[in-house]
Write a structure and sequence with these properties.
The complex is a heterotrimer. Chain A is mainly α. Chain A has 14 helices and no strands. Chain B is mainly alpha-helical. Classes of the chains: A mainly alpha, B mainly alpha, C alpha/beta.
Chain lengths: ~350, ~350, ~525
């Protein structure tokens, strides 16, 4: 879809394109951050900082991919953090019970899918607004994990496989398994969105549910699928985080939902549905990690992290607002141009 | 016609079915543990419930106006922090209280500007300010020790009483009465309902949507500030994570009370009943030595079943009322099925 | 309808048949024992006034709504599977009146939405084969002015005309057995109109059964074979188009009420006296808003009703929305009674003496959950308050009661929820809301859409009274008869511009050169050549 304008683009058009194409916008932001950091902070590119940065963004990235699909289909998923933690708990507990590692992973994924089904049912059948439904699932999932762990972090489940999955042990060179998983997930979901009819339907349902229904699309089922996909992503993130963390405390997922949603929105997804890109979510997650990394390097206490995330979220929404304005103004100009030609 | 009026009255107070459930809950907990209705337990119950009731009220007002405010919890936490900070620094009591209220008001104003002026999605805007307020409290709590206020009067806000009635109860009752008058009897309240039902239609009718919307967020922020002051007084010390998750209980309270998230419907009464129900469950679990974490599960379930229950009751009532109205009106009009038909088809689309 | 001479002989199985379809919406009957029978290779027009039940029937045939009673048969077999998907797969495609495209998707994805062509990858076919999809529709699309590269452009970037064309391509792309067209020509240019009609003929030759809903009776001639007319949710008749005059159609559609409609209440409206010398109430100069309103200038005098005519998307509603401060002007000046105003908000517009009865009563007019009284008082709440702040329920009720009597709003009580009223009474309550601000200029945007005939007559009288009392009015109405009946002057808009003005409108619809004026308006709005 993006190659149709290629070629013959002057400078003005490129600037314009960056303003209206959300993915290019976030990429520009990322580059500015990275270059600024490189100039101002020599430590930025020192040692493993960059790899740590990518590593630390993986969990949010995977969550953001799922959230993006939900946003495209016109919903919102606040439960990803809690579901991630619950899935991590499921994996860790299964390991402690002596199940093989793949069964443990399977259990975690099952928990994620189940949470997605619950979200989907609450939204499409019970008729709760998306954020209330997923807020309820958040409350439920975190409550269950708390009772399950009795407030004591789950430990003693680590195996070599888990270390590998958590990225504590690189697969080759500096490349860890979570990076490969995130990359694969991004490619698969991106491909589904752009090249399959399933992807088309997510956009249709989020953009104009009435038209989608008239075209014979089962709107409820498609929305439920989006939540299931988001739940699956949360579960994968949970497995990775359990491996990375060495323990699963009850509040493992707290605050992850806002990071995931922020990343998706920075990446160009819209709460109005029908808009969003996997690449945007990936870049958004990296941008977020980069921002946090920079403020850490500058020496701002980590207690400011939440404020910064909140501010970045506001900025991202505001940028979307501005780019929408620019976009509609451009369309209006084009329309005027077109009709004055005719007249 | 009398029955029809009675039915519409009933619909006007959507909290009514919930009131019955609240009474049932009180009876059940009393049977489980006879301490429940003793004066001491009741007094502590009301003091504990008061901040959450105020937050529920704030959420309810924003929801009636067609919006959502996720920031109430952490703004209350931050307000508790700033009150504490002012008092620890030696400010007089009234200044401390004022600082807390102004903190809440400031965040309400910020939310209002973001939503009404910059037209940022209310959900995202308040999610962002939720984090900003939470972050500010962390920063504040690391900079100062938020405890050890020596002013006796401050603790008395929640422990003292007027003629045997706890002060916090008096304040809460006063606020609820004022809020009730404001939203049901004034121009401001009327416009709030109008924008909640349909901002577009209200705008066509000459209502300034931005101003009314701004107002709902400011009220919600102010209530969060007051709630924060009382939280600080009750706890005596403010932790860095105070207020996180309270928005969940507050919104749940409004929803359970029967306030439709679609906006434009609901009352102060409904908010009170919903908030009291959750507070009762919390107290009941506490008195029966149930781990407080079960509360978040119960709240989650209460939201889901509250919505289903409320809708079922209302659907039955609405159907009866419609049939009667249709029979009463000779005037027949094919294409103008009442608006509720449109609403149902919207639901189907989901 | 036993007296109907033109029913097809019983041995030909109709490709589509609706039998005894009845539908209630919460106690209101929208369709009552409706019948429709469409043959293969037939263009069958579906006619009726607003609210006659055409849209309801189409909703039921297309599977979007369920009938309370009755069956739909395709090739003589009842359609059992429910839902739009099943109906489309069974061979019934629908072009809806309101655009039903997905803005986020490309034209191509919209055309194939729900029916994508797939490429097999690893034995599963989920991958969209966009190249094959493009090849399939390229020719059809270019017939409707959609170039190949435009097929890959998101629909949100197209104007209304192109969107309509995409919708048509979407319906035609799958060789349907039955094609339902709900007002397909609204907003189309002449050339596209001709192209569409040509396609309808081609489809007829290919033995497709076409159901065609239209308000433009003049389009029927030479194209439609038969027509079924609905009135008040019931069948009024099925006729051969070739043997039926426009006048006969009107009788079928409106029955005796047509006389009532045509006779009009002319006591207060002396259109033969020009009002050009009367004081100017509203003066608009050079109004512009993007490309939807372009250089619009006009005056409205005291006692005058100005009609705005034009096709859908011509910018009629857009013009009045800028007057009301609902949309921002990019340039232009507005004066009310000689005072310059800048309506930045609807509140300011009301204060300046403007008021508007919006189109789309359900979405923009009523606040369904509020009482009738609260709906009326909303535009000027302070008149029913103490100290401009406390709403007095008693005074609010009294105000509503006054209007209830004056406008004849039929309701058991003014404290009832307005959403439970019938459309006509809802509309009267909204008129009351406007009148309550004592407006100098009252804007009526489609004031009689979807309301019954008696309420229609009442609303017409209200417009006339408002003008007779020295008020000014702007009227927008899709039904030309209605517009010409009520207006002193008619401005014709096209693509946001005023392209002509009609003066000297005859007194009554019965008068001789009425049809002539009508065709003049139609010609102007379609072709846009100078008046």
């Amino acid at each position: 879809m993006s190659d149709r304008h290629s070629g013959r683009m002057n400078g003005h058009a490129i600037v314009h394109r960056i303003l209206i194409d959300p993915t290019l916008g976030v990429l520009a932001l990322l580059v500015i951050f990275a270059v600024g950091a490189a100039i101002l902070l020599p430590v930025f590119y020192a040692g493993n900082n960059l790899l740590n940065l990518v590593g630390s963004s993986i969990t949010v990235m995977i969550l953001a991919i799922g959230v993006t699909v939900v946003l495209i289909s016109g919903g919102i998923d606040l439960s990803v953090g809690a579901v991630m933690a619950l899935s991590a708990g499921a994996a860790a507990t299964s390991m402690r019970l002596g199940l093989p590692v793949f069964a443990a992973f399977g259990a975690a994924i099952l928990v994620g899918i189940l949470a997605g089904v619950v979200n989907g049912l609450l939204v499409t059948r019970v008729g709760l607004p998306d954020f209330i439904a997923t807020l309820a699932t958040l409350g439920f999932a975190s409550g269950v994990l708390y009772i399950w762990t009795q407030g004591v972090p789950i430990i003693g489940y680590m195996t070599p496989e888990f270390r590998l999955v958590g990225g504590l042990q690189p697969v080759f060179g500096q490349v860890t398994l979570p990076m490969i998983i995130a990359l694969a997930l991004a490619l698969i979901v991106g491909w589904v969105l752009s090249s399959t009819s399933l992807g088309t339907r997510y956009f249709a349902v989020g953009s104009n549910p009435v038209a989608a229904r008239q075209s014979g699309i089962r709107v409820r089922w498609v929305k439920t699928q989006a939540y299931m996909l988001s739940g699956t992503c949360a579960a994968i993130a949970g497995i990775i985080l359990a491996g990375r963390n060495n323990n699963v405390p009850a509040d493992l997922g707290t605050g992850y939902e806002i990071q995931a949603i922020s990343a998706a929105i920075i990446g160009g997804a819209s709460l109005m549905g029908g808009r969003g890109r996997v690449l945007g979510a990936v870049l958004g997650a990296i941008t977020l990690a980069l921002a946090i990394n920079i403020i850490n390097l500058v020496g701002v206490p980590s207690s400011f992290q939440k404020i910064v995330i909140g501010a970045i979220l506001l900025l991202a929404v505001f940028a979307n607002f501005v780019s929408d304005r620019v976009r509609s103004a451009a369309l209006r100009r084009r329309a005027t141009h077109f009709s004055s030609n005719v007249a | 016609m009398k029955t029809s009026t009675a039915v519409s009255r009933l619909m006007g107070t959507p909290g009514l079915p919930m009131t019955i459930i609240l009474i049932v809950a009180v009876i059940v907990f009393q049977l489980l543990n006879p301490i429940f209705l003793t004066p001491g337990a009741l007094s502590s119950y009301l003091t504990n419930a008061m901040p959450i009731l105020l937050l529920t009220l704030g959420s309810a007002i924003v929801i009636i106006g067609g919006g959502i405010d996720l920031s109430v919890g952490t703004v209350a936490g931050l307000s508790a922090g700033t009150t504490m900070w002012a008092l620890v620094a030696g400010a007089p009591l009234w200044v401390g209280i004022l600082v807390g209220c102004v903190t809440g008001l400031g965040f309400g104003l910020l939310n209002g500007i973001l939503v009404a002026v910059f037209r940022i999605n209310d959900f995202i805007a308040t999610l962002a300010t939720l984090n900003i307020a939470a972050g500010l409290l962390v920063v504040l709590s690391q900079a100062t020790l938020l405890q050890g206020v020596t002013d006796e009067g401050f603790a008395a806000l929640t422990r003292g009483d007027v003629f045997g009635i706890p002060i916090s109860f008096v304040v809460a009752a006063g606020i609820f009465v004022l809020a009730h008058l404001l939203i049901s009897k004034t121009v401001t309240g009327r416009r709030m309902y109008a924008i909640g039902i349909s901002a577009e239609a209200a705008n066509v009718a000459g209502v300034s949507v931005a101003r009314s919307r701004m107002f709902t967020f400011v009220i919600s922020g102010l209530l969060a500030g007051v709630a924060g002051v009382f939280l600080a007084s009750r706890l005596g010390a403010v932790q860095a994570f105070l207020g996180i998750g309270y928005e969940f209980t507050a919104i749940a309270g409004a929803v359970v009370g029967g306030i439709a998230l679609a906006g434009g419907a609901g009352s102060v009464w409904a908010a009170l009943i919903g908030g009291l129900f959750l507070a009762t469950v919390q107290q009941g679990l506490r008195l029966n030595n149930v781990d407080p974490v079960y509360f978040s599960i119960v709240t989650a379930l209460a939201i889901v079943f509250g919505v289903i229950f409320d809708r079922q009751v209302r659907r039955v009532l609405l159907r009866g009322a419609l049939a009667r109205t249709a029979a009463a009106l000779v005037d027949r009009d094919a294409s103008s099925a009442p608006a509720s038909a449109g609403r149902e088809s919207k639901e189907e689309v989901r | 309808m036993a007296d109907d001479p033109n029913l097809p002989s019983a041995d030909v199985v109709p490709v589509l048949e609706a039998r005894g379809v009845t539908k209630h919406y919460d106690g209101v009957t929208a369709l009552d024992d409706a019948h429709l029978s469409v043959q293969r290779g037939e263009i069958h027009a579906l006619l009726g006034g607003n609210g006659a039940g055409k849209s309801t029937l189409i909703g039921i045939i297309s599977g979007a709504n369920k009938a309370d009673l009755g069956t739909i048969l395709l090739d003589g077999e009842p359609i059992t599977a429910a839902g739009p998907q099943a109906t489309i797969l069974a061979g019934v495609s629908t072009i809806y009146q309101e655009l039903s495209l997905v803005p986020a998707l490309s034209a191509l994805d919209n055309i194939f939405l729900g029916r994508e062509l797939h490429r097999r990858v690893l034995g599963i076919s989920v991958v969209s084969d966009r190249r094959r999809m493009e090849e399939t529709v390229r020719e059809l699309a270019s017939d409707f002015g959609i170039a190949s590269h435009e097929l890959h452009t998101p629909v949100s970037e197209f104007g209304a005309l192109k969107k309509r064309s995409i919708e048509i391509v979407k319906a035609l792309a799958f060789d349907p057995k039955v094609l339902i067209l709900d007002e397909p020509t609204s907003g189309l240019e002449d050339a596209e109109r001709v192209s569409l009609f040509e396609y309808m003929r081609t489809l007829r030759e290919r033995n497709v059964g076409l159901v065609w809903v239209t308000h433009h009776l003049e389009e029927l001639v030479g194209l439609a074979d038969r027509a079924t007319i609905f009135r008040d949710g019931r069948n009024a008749g099925t006729v051969e188009v070739a043997n039926t005059s426009i006048d006969q159609f009107l009788t079928y559609m409106f029955g005796d009420q047509r006389d009532e409609f045509g006779a009009g209440d002319t006591r207060h409206l002396n259109r033969l006296t020009p009002l050009d010398d009367a004081p100017i109430v509203l003066s608009a100069r050079g109004l512009n808003r993007g490309s939807v309103v372009r250089d619009v200038s006009f005056d409205v005098h005291e006692g005058e009703v100005i009609g705005l005519a034009g096709l859908a998307g011509a910018g009629r509603t857009e013009v009045v929305r800028t007057l009301m401060g609902l949309d921002r002007l990019t340039s232009g000046t507005i004066e009310v009674d000689g005072r310059r105003i800048t309506p930045r908000s609807s509140t300011a517009a009301y204060r300046a003496g403007l008021a508007m009865l919006p189109e789309d009563r359900k979405q923009l007019g009523i606040l369904a959950d509020l009482s009738i009284a609260a709906n009326i008082s909303l535009s000027r709440l302070r008149t029913v308050t103490w100290a401009r702040f406390w709403v007095s329920a008693r005074r609010e009720r009294a105000l509503a009661e006054r209007y209830r009597t004056r406008l004849g709003i039929k309701t058991p009580t003014v404290t009832a929820r307005i959403g439970n009223l019938s459309g006509g009474n809802q509309q009267k309550a909204i008129v009351a809301r406007c009148l309550n601000t004592s407006p100098r200029l009252l804007i009526f945007d489609e004031p009689t859409q979807g309301i019954d005939v008696s309420a229609k007559v009442d609303v017409h009288a209200l417009i006339r009274h408002h003008a007779a009392d020295g008020g000014a009015a702007i009227l927008i109405a899709s039904e030309l008869e209605e517009l010409l009946e009520l207006s002193h002057r008619v401005l014709v808009l096209k693509k946001g511009r005023i392209v002509g003005e009609i003066r000297d409108i005859p007194k009554s619809i019965a008068a001789g050169h009425f049809a002539e004026i009508k065709s003049k308006v139609l010609a102007l709005s379609a072709a846009g050549s100078a008046a």
